[in-house]
Amino acid sequence: MRAVLHVLYLIFNEGYVASSGPHLQRPELSSEAIRLTRALHKLLPDDGEAAGLLALMLLTDARRAARTGPEEELIPLAKQDRSLWDQEEISEGTALITETLSKGSVGAYQLQAAIAAVHAESSRAEDTDWPQILALYGLLKQMSDNPMVMLNHAIATAMVHGPSAGLDLLRTLDEDGRLTGHHRLDAVRAHLLEMAGDRESAIAHYRIAAGRTTSLPERNYLITQAARLSESAPNPGVDERAR
Amino acid sequence: MKYILMMNAMTAGSLYGGASGWQKKDILAHIAFMKSLTQSLVESGELVSTEGLALPDQARIVRAGKDGAPIKDGVFPESKEFLAGFWIVDVDSLERAFQIAARASAAPGPGGVPLNMPIEVRQVMSGPPEELL
What we know:
Chain A has helices at residues 2-16, 27-43, 48-61, 64-67, 87-102, 108-121, 130-143, 147-161, 163-176, 183-195, 199-212, 216-231, 236-242. By secondary structure, chain A is an all-alpha fold. Residues 236-243 of chain A have low confidence and may be disordered. Chain B is flat.
């Protein structure tokens, strides 16, 4: 059962963030994963993790239209136009995870769905209930030894306790080693360094991340972030060239 | 006839070399240009395939060792130019392949100034064999 759920999760994820190729998303894969997981949930309505995975997929897929701009450029969660989120999927996913959690079972997919539901309930990014998300990532971290969970936990920590607390956690990930050389670690570090006001290091890490991702839309996004920060430089030489 | 159009970018100061010195609007204009070029080749039915490549600091040169196992060489930060991406097009004439290459070459750089990147045009060996006498 665990393996089945994991395969469905991987299919969904590949559709949501294609690991290669010019397009960011492959919606047909995500739709198929949702269809199969829905069928599985129907067969096993009492399986909390099957319900949790379905809720997670619905709540994640709901953001699809807001994730890319007109040029297929990547738009991060904080910058998305939330009016484009699919309210039908959000309602279904939220109801499903609320009902599942009320039965008292807890699993990794249910926790991730609960996190997605917290994001979905704020109509503005700045209203996000980060303390609740941090608490959920704390639980998830106890449950699974996944470095990506540690990375997201570091982001939530930064949002609640400030960027230097998040950067401290990234240093433990450096020591952990499993994400060494992975572009996500560099991209998150760049983001937290930017939050901390360390512009030069943030630019450098956005560029390192750009060099390591295998996704073209993601690379475009990361070099654009580096350029945006460079332009905000209090550097007269750069201003001169801009004119 | 099929041709491969190989786009060579400069390691320093190019979008594909890390885009330092580019303004955000320049990057967006460059990406939009490349997308519209690809789209027009799709619409004309001339595009066979196109890919962008990862940055060259990830590149390795591989040779087989005595036991056949891969021997990897790299990294090569000193090279000034590198293959950034390619198009394979199916066109009626070599002239048309040159036209497309020239259009790609003139992709906008910083300040909207055409980059005039070198594009190597090579025929793909996909013609039918002549009947041998």
